[in-house]
Amino acid sequence: MANDKLPVMEQFYTIQGEGRFTGHAAYFIRLAGCDVGCVWCDVKESWHTDNYPKISPKELADETSKNASTIVVITGGEPAMYDLSELCNELHDVGKKVHIETSGAHELKGQFDWVTLSPKKFKPPVSSSYAVANELKIIVFNKSDFEWAKQFRKLVPKNCLLYLQPEWSKRDEMEPLIIDFVKNNPEWNISLQTHKYLDIP
Ligand code: SF4
User: Fold this and answer.
1) N or C, which end of the chain has less CB nearby within 10 Å?
2) In degrees, to the nearest 5, what angle opens at C-alpha 87 toward C-alphas 198 and 20?
3) What is the model's pTM?
4) 85 phi and psi, to 5 degrees?
5) Helix/strand/coil for 57
6) Ligand 1 test: best mutation among 40, 42, 46, 117, most atoms within 8 Å of CB?
7) Does 19 have pLDDT greater than 50?
């Protein structure tokens, strides 16, 4: 139900560290709950909804209004597990741009201003998620992930931005490979988790 309260693991105002909006101030709402199960997940505590407060879309929108943010990023967990229509409406009503970061494993429900599609091998995207992607972000954990990334290029819109991002624990090994790949395939870009280098949430 669109009006249901949502399980919120955390919410905070910070700087977007990844992708096209790197360096932009953004308010993050991290919803709890994920059924994707990436082995290298760095927010495994988000997988279950137990012990997290359930908050209404209106309350969440009111919370975002307590700072100067223009962008609200809905992340997780896997936020597309929920119908986010009401949350998008409430955030738009208070003048925010609504971004979402999703694996695409569930059909998106809501009006989003920016969709970051980050497919995972552990539960592939549903077909409807490709057409709405504004940026495609592939996490590179293994050498084989470059070939895996290429298959998604054909599935997203032509103007979709393409990013390769080293998985944090493998960054020393993968960054040189990503640099070489991007030099040979210049339609792709490097995304780094700059918030981790800056030591901010
Ligand atoms: Fe973790 Fe995100 Fe993968 Fe879920 S989709 S397991 S939250 S990295």
Assistant:
1) N
2) 35
3) 0.95
4) -55, -50
5) helix
6) 46
7) yes
